[in-house]
Design brief:
InterPro entries: FAD/NAD-bd_sf. By secondary structure, the protein is mostly helical. Helix content is about 85%, strand content about 0%. The chain is built from 6 helices and no strands. About 0% of the residues are buried.
Length: about 110
Protein backbone atom coordinates (compact mmCIF):
# COMPACT_ATOMS: atom_id res chain seq x y z
CA UNK A 1 0.00 0.00 0.00
CA UNK A 2 2.88 2.31 0.81
CA UNK A 3 4.46 1.81 -2.61
CA UNK A 4 1.07 2.24 -4.33
CA UNK A 5 0.44 5.45 -2.42
CA UNK A 6 3.87 6.72 -3.41
CA UNK A 7 3.37 5.77 -7.07
CA UNK A 8 -0.14 7.16 -7.35
CA UNK A 9 -0.25 9.85 -4.66
CA UNK A 10 1.86 12.41 -6.42
CA UNK A 11 2.51 12.55 -10.11
CA UNK A 12 3.15 8.95 -11.16
CA UNK A 13 6.47 8.64 -12.90
CA UNK A 14 7.77 5.69 -14.87
CA UNK A 15 10.30 5.05 -12.11
CA UNK A 16 7.63 4.98 -9.40
CA UNK A 17 5.37 2.75 -11.45
CA UNK A 18 8.24 0.30 -12.08
CA UNK A 19 8.96 0.25 -8.35
CA UNK A 20 5.30 -0.47 -7.68
CA UNK A 21 5.24 -3.28 -10.26
CA UNK A 22 8.39 -4.85 -8.76
CA UNK A 23 6.94 -4.66 -5.25
CA UNK A 24 3.67 -6.26 -6.34
CA UNK A 25 5.46 -9.02 -8.23
CA UNK A 26 7.77 -9.68 -5.29
CA UNK A 27 4.81 -10.06 -2.96
CA UNK A 28 2.25 -11.73 -5.24
CA UNK A 29 4.17 -13.06 -8.27
CA UNK A 30 4.09 -16.65 -7.08
CA UNK A 31 0.38 -16.41 -6.38
CA UNK A 32 -0.26 -14.93 -9.84
CA UNK A 33 1.67 -17.80 -11.44
CA UNK A 34 -0.22 -20.37 -9.40
CA UNK A 35 -3.53 -18.79 -10.43
CA UNK A 36 -2.55 -18.86 -14.10
CA UNK A 37 -1.59 -22.52 -13.89
CA UNK A 38 -4.78 -23.45 -12.04
CA UNK A 39 -6.84 -21.60 -14.66
CA UNK A 40 -5.08 -23.58 -17.42
CA UNK A 41 -6.08 -26.80 -15.70
CA UNK A 42 -9.71 -25.78 -15.24
CA UNK A 43 -9.97 -24.57 -18.84
CA UNK A 44 -9.00 -28.04 -20.05
CA UNK A 45 -11.25 -30.01 -17.70
CA UNK A 46 -14.20 -31.95 -19.00
CA UNK A 47 -17.61 -31.78 -17.36
CA UNK A 48 -16.94 -35.21 -15.86
CA UNK A 49 -13.67 -34.00 -14.36
CA UNK A 50 -15.33 -30.91 -12.90
CA UNK A 51 -18.09 -33.07 -11.44
CA UNK A 52 -15.41 -35.20 -9.74
CA UNK A 53 -13.89 -32.09 -8.19
CA UNK A 54 -17.28 -30.97 -6.89
CA UNK A 55 -17.96 -34.44 -5.48
CA UNK A 56 -14.63 -34.27 -3.69
CA UNK A 57 -15.54 -30.86 -2.27
CA UNK A 58 -18.67 -32.37 -0.72
CA UNK A 59 -16.53 -34.45 1.64
CA UNK A 60 -16.43 -33.09 5.18
CA UNK A 61 -12.68 -33.68 5.54
CA UNK A 62 -11.97 -31.71 2.35
CA UNK A 63 -14.34 -28.91 3.37
CA UNK A 64 -12.60 -28.65 6.75
CA UNK A 65 -9.20 -28.54 5.03
CA UNK A 66 -10.36 -25.77 2.67
CA UNK A 67 -11.90 -23.72 5.48
CA UNK A 68 -8.78 -24.08 7.61
CA UNK A 69 -6.33 -23.13 4.85
CA UNK A 70 -8.23 -20.78 2.54
CA UNK A 71 -6.78 -17.33 2.00
CA UNK A 72 -8.23 -15.27 -0.85
CA UNK A 73 -4.91 -13.59 -1.69
CA UNK A 74 -2.58 -16.51 -0.99
CA UNK A 75 -3.62 -19.74 -2.69
CA UNK A 76 -0.36 -21.54 -2.03
CA UNK A 77 -1.28 -22.36 1.57
CA UNK A 78 -4.39 -24.25 0.48
CA UNK A 79 -2.59 -25.97 -2.38
CA UNK A 80 0.14 -27.19 -0.02
CA UNK A 81 -2.46 -28.52 2.42
CA UNK A 82 -4.24 -30.35 -0.39
CA UNK A 83 -0.97 -31.82 -1.67
CA UNK A 84 -0.05 -33.06 1.79
CA UNK A 85 -3.42 -34.78 1.98
CA UNK A 86 -3.22 -35.85 -1.69
CA UNK A 87 -2.33 -39.49 -1.08
CA UNK A 88 -5.72 -39.93 0.60
CA UNK A 89 -7.55 -37.86 -2.03
CA UNK A 90 -5.99 -39.35 -5.17
CA UNK A 91 -8.22 -42.42 -5.33
CA UNK A 92 -11.24 -40.11 -5.45
CA UNK A 93 -9.81 -38.19 -8.43
CA UNK A 94 -8.30 -41.14 -10.30
CA UNK A 95 -4.61 -41.05 -11.14
CA UNK A 96 -5.21 -41.00 -14.91
CA UNK A 97 -7.25 -37.81 -14.58
CA UNK A 98 -4.60 -36.15 -12.40
CA UNK A 99 -1.78 -37.01 -14.79
CA UNK A 100 -3.82 -35.68 -17.70
CA UNK A 101 -3.79 -32.19 -16.19
CA UNK A 102 -0.43 -32.16 -14.41
CA UNK A 103 1.31 -30.81 -17.52
CA UNK A 104 -0.68 -27.57 -17.22
CA UNK A 105 0.57 -27.12 -13.67
CA UNK A 106 4.17 -27.87 -14.52
CA UNK A 107 4.78 -25.97 -17.75
CA UNK A 108 5.80 -22.31 -17.46
Amino acid sequence: AEVAADALGSEPTAKKLRAYERAVMKRFGREFELGIRARRVFEQMTDEDLNSIFELLKREDVQALVLENFDFDHHEKLLRALLIKAPRLLPSLELKRILKYSRYLLKP
